[in-house]
Specification:
- The complex is a heterodimer of chains A (114) and B (114).
- Chain A has 114 residues and is an all-beta fold.
- Chain A has strands at residues 3-7, 10-13, 19-26, 32-38, 45-52, 55-58, 65-70, 73-78, 87-94, 104-105, 109-113.
- Chain A contains no helices and eleven strands.
- In chain A, the strands form two sheets. In chain A, strands 2, 4, 5, 6, 9, 10 and 11 form a seven-stranded mixed β-sheet that branches.
- Chain A is globular and about 45 Å long.
- Chain B has a single domain (3-113), classed as Immunoglobulins (Immunoglobulin-like, Sandwich).
- Chain B has strands at 3-5, 10-14, 19-21, 24-26, 31-38, 44-50, 56-58, 64-68, 73-78, 87-95, 103-104, 108-113.
- Chain B starts with a strand and ends with a strand.
- Classes of the chains: A mainly beta (114), B mainly beta (114).
- Chains A and B meet through strand 5, strand 9 and strand 10 of A and strand 5, strand 6 and strand 10 of B.
Chain lengths: 114, 114
């Protein structure tokens, strides 16, 4: 069966520090991968998605970047965090023969920027 | 492009009462429809989905939803809620026949009290 893991679960970082959140998927190949963010009390905002190694699409211009160095690995990064980067970050994958768009989510990473 | 509207941002309900969470979508082509649940500080979990066939879809935890094409709706229902159903619920839509991304509604907070 397929599983998705992301870490760290919780992160407290000072303004201006770097960020790296990692996500890996197991049990499937060539998944579509996504990073979402939830600000407090808000809905889901799609940040990046990837359909293959090295292929990244950005939905919202911002202080963050994403990379996909391996087929089942997706990394969210920042060189210098802003207060507005605080939020709950979710990694997700989709795929399969039907390609319905159904997403499978990781456990989430809570980022607090102070 | 598709869109999703969840008209109710919050729905308070007493335990053992029935509940309906409303979802309307907009799309010019055939769609797939999903309901996800998010418990505090967790990722999203699929409750149920409509891909094709019977318009009444049953999901986990006693929830069900009915696809109504003429009203472009996919309302979520449960005949008797429990305290443990307190969570955020997201409706989502994707477009059939393409390598599609899910479009999410803004979410409905279901608050169950004694």
């Amino acid at each position: 069966s397929q599983t998705i893991h992301q870490w760290p679960a919780t992160l407290v970082q000072p303004v201006g520090s770097p960020l790296s959140l990692e996500c890996t998927v197991e049990g499937t190949s060539n998944p579509n991968l996504y990073w979402y963010r939830q600000a407090a009390g808000r809905g889901l905002q799609l940040l990046f998605y990837s359909v293959g190694i090295g292929q990244i699409s950005s939905e919202v211009p911002q202080n963050l970047s994403a990379s996909r160095p391996q087929d089942r690995q997706f990394i969210l990064s920042s060189k210098k965090l802003l207060l507005s980067d605080s939020g709950f970050y979710l990694c997700a994958w989709s795929g399969g023969t039907l390609n319905t768009g159904e997403l499978f989510f990781g456990e989430g990473s809570r980022l607090t920027v102070l | 492009a598709q869109s999703v509207t969840q008209l109710d941002s919050q729905v308070p309900v007493f335990e053992e009462a029935p509940v309906e969470l409303r979802c309307n979508y907009s799309s010019s082509v055939s769609v797939y429809l999903f309901w996800y649940v998010q418990y505090p500080n967790q990722g999203l979990q699929l409750l149920l989905k409509y891909l094709s066939g019977s318009t009444l879809v049953k999901g986990i935890n006693g929830f069900e939803a009915e696809f109504n094409k003429s009203q472009t709706s996919f309302h979520l229902r449960k005949p008797s809620v429990h305290i443990s159903d307190t969570a955020e619920y997201f409706c989502a839509v994707s477009t059939a026949g393409t390598a599609s991304k899910l479009t999410f509604g803004t979410g409905t907070r279901l608050q169950v009290t004694l």
